[in-house]
# Entry
Amino acid sequence: EADYFSQGVAFYNFGFINRPTDPASDRSAFILFDNAYEGITHETRLVSTGEGRFNWIAGLFYTNQKTSLLFDEIIPGGDAIMGNLKFSRSVIPDSGYREDLASDYTELAIYGELGMDITDRWRASVSARVFNYEDKATQLVDDYATGGFNETVTGTVKVDGTAFYRFNTSYDLTPDILAYFTASQGYRRGGINAFRSFPGFELRPEAKTFEPDSTDNFEVGVKGLLFDRRLYIAANIYQINWNNPQSYRAQPVTPQDQFFELNGTFNAPDATSRGFEFNGRFKFNENWSVAYAAATTKAEWNETGVHCLYTTDNPTAPIANLSPTCTVRFKGGTLGGAPEWKQTFSINYSKTLDDGSSVFARLTGRILGEIQNDRCDNPEALCNALIYPAYTPLNYSMGWSGGAWDASISVSNITNERALVSIQGANARGNRDGLRATFTRPQTVSFNLSYKFD
# Structure
């Protein structure tokens, strides 16, 4: 079960959709989950002994998974309160809404990898995975209270003989430093949406289902030890080409209603993510060391694409004349979800005392840039995404360990910085129920004392 009070009041109170509840009854709405899973998975793998210049892996993989993600929105006393106002009788008493995402998924794959020591310093490997899968999906939506959605959609997504590959090569620049390059591919299966047609508004084929998406990944980097192995560094640059990416989509309960929506998925235009990563550690002596890591990334749409729900929509119309049930992703639009820059650092001290006990002290910090919490699909328009501000939390800890005793004290968020890190309800529901914001944990001091019994 899960609490559903705020949404229960919003969706079922008499002032909103004319399906009255009893706000004075102290009976909170809740969600009742009844998920089910059963399946079998088998894998057989053969691996070479590792002797000689060549090594290999060969395998067979099979899985069959039957899942049902079922939930009901329960309004205690709802049947008696709504009575004949309910559009249909629910399976579970007092349920105003039911949703079930069910799947019968079968996959068979063979895979293999061949590696070779080209020279004493140069290595390479290539691998492949070939697979078939079939996903028989059923999506049920029953809006008992309003009749906005009462639909059961079934469909089968099937793929035969799909192959994906990986290549890696590395070269030892010195006994302690190597450079490498990796090219690989990733894959995610498609599925169906529980969207429906209306009189005069027939769903387009691309709205009923969504296709698999895939990635082409490229990374080149270097890592190793310097200065008598006191300095460790790892650095790389990467690019991810996202092909036919799956993105979220929604269908209004009627073509004219943009308020209530049913969630789904569609295939957006291709996208690219690029970035740089660095990680380093330096040991001054046996007591003092420092560490630093940094990463930057940027992801954006490669091209402009239009997706429409109904056959009456014209996806080739000028952007300004598109139907409200069409959505546009513009070239150069940013995907968000991660800071452009993030950095971490630490200063560490440790020492073993003459009596055999040890002490340590550590100062750590993170430098996080602004985070765009959602996509900004049009680089030329005002973005509706929220921007979480940059912040730099600092933490300190120190401790002593001797024999069976351990003691430590720590202070997190030393400067007591209050930064917004998450927000929920920034949509139509939030306008009714209010926003729920999450901030960084305030300055916290903790003490730990432990004893190890024999």
Summary: The CA atoms of residues 12 and 19 lie 6 Å apart. Residues 14-21, 426-433 have pLDDT under 50 and may be disordered. Helices lie at 5-12, 14-17, 78-82, 205-208, 428-433.
